Amino acid sequence: MAGGTSNRSLHLVLLQLLFPRASPFRVSVRARPSVASVGSFVARNMSASPTNIIDVNMPSTTGAAAKTQVLPSFSRNVERTLDPCVVLMKDLVGQYADSWKDKGGIYSLAQGVVYWKPPEQATVAMKEALDDIDSSLHLYGPDEGLESLREELCKKVAKENGLDDHHVMVTVGANQAYVNCVLTLMHDTDKCVVFAPYYFNHVMALQMTLPESSMVVGPSTDSSSAETSQEQRQQEDGTPDAVWLERALQNDPCIKVVTIVNPGNPTGTHLSRGLLQKIVDLCRQYNAWLVLDCTYEYFVPNSEFDGCFSDPHVLHIFSFSKAYALAGYRCGYLVIPKSAMGLYEQMMKVQDTIPIAPPRISQVAALASLSAGKEWVQSRVATLNTGRQAILEALRPLEKIIGGSGAMYVMGKLPLGENDKIMDDQEFASLLVKDFGVAVIPGSFCGFPGWIRVCYANLPPEQCLRAAERLADGLRTLIDGQ
After folding, report:
1. Each residue of 17-43: pLDDT tens digit?
2. How far apart are CA 195 and CA 259, in angstroms?
3. Which of 111, 232, 330, 444 has the most Cβ atoms closer than 10 angstroms to its Cβ?
4. Which CA distances in Å does 104 have to 100, 332, 437?
5. Are 351 and 144 contacting, i.e. CB atoms less than 8 angstroms apart?
């Protein structure tokens, strides 16, 4: 469809995906309740029916004075969607960058990125492709991705993940893969389960495409029972509560999708095969899709990833952004069971509407990166242990910690504030940047107010040690000031 489809046709397809019950020419958007401000450094104006007024400084053909124009309202779905916390944190860092210029700069433990560069093979392959006079880089590629890349990915998921009878669809990052799932699997009366603390971009995808009632937030388990030790009580396991999920599926037949990130973002927890099997079985029993985001499959220190399932109701998401350091190239992929008849074909409608096709140059980089191999990634992941231990140590004074067993994150619960109120995690994050030169993600963006998420992969080990010292200083000041 890339070459011959008119813009108008593509617009109609997108409207049909987002509003399946409405005529493209009479789109009805249900009114949304107001959403209050959620933080000290987040400026939000979320009224249900905003009035957007601008001064129109255009010459008048009648000679009359310029008039003020009242603009149409915005999408209420998008208005109630979370603000992009990584963008907000970058803005905050920018505000105080000059004051830390002579002190080594502000260390970011916020966005989930790796400090290493892509494999040399990727750089060489892209240079060769750009220098090739007969290169087709400027052309649309196949909607589902280049055949050469998909062939290698099929071999990879069969060998490493046990998924040997599946389609592969290349996407513009793992986030687009998840949006594909949401638009393909969910009707506007269906519901999707995410578990708090959740990955904010998953929640944003649900918020901006579906009614507010479509998202169901489940709890994570808490190892704070009387039988557990003090150390166990301090470090929660942060795993999805399968007992709660079973009750939810029993009581609400509208739940059609369950989302799990493993290893976890933001939890930093590597889930057991047994727990995942329980969730797979529950979704099968209650006729729900299970979407497993496996972006961090190689980030499992002292363990092996064993989190994929070949059942027809299970979809898997993978990414080149973390393991192969291709975040800026935006390349991920979906693995779809062939036994789910018709699913791949239906998802192709979404794929053709959103990216049309992933960029060729990004796929060239991804294909070359695969030749570096899993071992190349694991050798770099091993270097994260120094920073991980330092961050865990910096967070030790806190009452509870989640993570450290997978991905690249640790979460910590801040002390209660005045009158035992949950501490404003966004205010604390602002304080860390301004006074201590270190950035983290406030937990409120992950459905965990009063917590912070810390990434230990975005700085080389020696810098991560210094960042951990700053974080520890900030926490000590906070606790001492209570």
Report:
1. 555 544 333 323 333 333 333 344 544
2. 8
3. 444
4. 7, 34, 9
5. yes
CA–CA dist 443, 453 (Å, integer): 6
Distance from chain centroid for Cα 77: 19
| pLDDT for position 17 | 58
Question: 479: pLDDT confidence band, cut at 50, 70 and 90?
Answer: confident
Is residue 417 a contact partner of residue 87, using CB atoms and an 8 Å limit? no
Contact 10, 143 (CB under 8 A): no
pLDDT for the residue 19 = 53
Measuring CA to CA, which residue among 383, 409, 466 is closest to residue 116? 383
Measured distance CA(433)–CA(332) in Å, rounded: 32
**What separation in angstroms does the CA of 193 have from each of 196, 279, 451?**
10, 12, 21
Q: Measure the CA–CA gap between 383 and 379, rounded to whole angstroms.
A: 7
Per residue in 85-115, is it b (16+ CB within 10 Å) or e — as a string? bbebbeebbeebeeebeeeeebbbbbbbbbb
Tokens of 475: 């926490």
Cβ–Cβ under 8 Å, residues 160 and 374: yes
Quote the pTM value.
0.87
Residues 6+ apart with CB under 8 A from 346: 184
- In the predicted model, is pLDDT for residue 3 greater than 70? no
**How far apart are alpha carbons 157 and 307 in whole angstroms?**
12
Write phi, then psi, for 251 (nearest 5 degrees).
-90, -15
The dihedral through the CA atoms of 319, 320, 323, 328 has a sign that is negative
Which amino acid, one-letter code, is at 37?
S
